[in-house]
Amino acid sequence: MAFATVQGDIDLSSPDGRTMARVLVAFANKSSMDTSRRLKRKHLELAQSGVLVASHRAFGYEDDRVTLRQSEVELIREAATDIISGVALHAIARRWNAQGVTTSYGNIWRQAPLER
User: Fold this and answer.
1) Is pLDDT of 6 > 90?
2) Contacts of 18 (CB under 8 A, 6+ apart)
3) pTM over 0.70
4) Are 60 and 72 a contacting pair, CB within 8 Å?
5) What does the alpha-carbon distance between residue 76 and residue 52 come to, in Å, rounded to a whole number?
6) What Cα–Cα distance (Å) separates residue 13 from each residue in 5, 9, 39, 100?
7) How far is it, in rounded angstroms, from Cα 25 to Cα 5?
8) Which of 48, 47, 50, 76 is nearest to 61 (CA)?
9) What is the pLDDT of residues 63-109, one digit of tens each?
């Protein structure tokens, strides 16, 4: 069995070919980790200097990502009180969906986005 790469074919049926494939995977993995580390460091630097990195507004904020959207802030406060009182997240999501409240993307609420 041969495996095609941009550097040529690798014969996975031979020990040398399998070793070469493992080496290529290891280098690709290292490259991915390096990119992740650089991006995390840059995002931290931007956050510490007050620059927002998000591509979409968070629920509770206006499109400028700084100004609070009061209608959503009130919902968040109510939800926080409910959670402290023991109300389940899925119950809050159901209530918001019944009220016609959508996420900042315009989607219905589910438990996972509410947790975030």
Assistant:
1) no
2) 12
3) no
4) yes
5) 21
6) 16, 12, 38, 58
7) 11
8) 76
9) 888 899 999 999 999 999 999 999 999 999 999 999 999 999 999 99
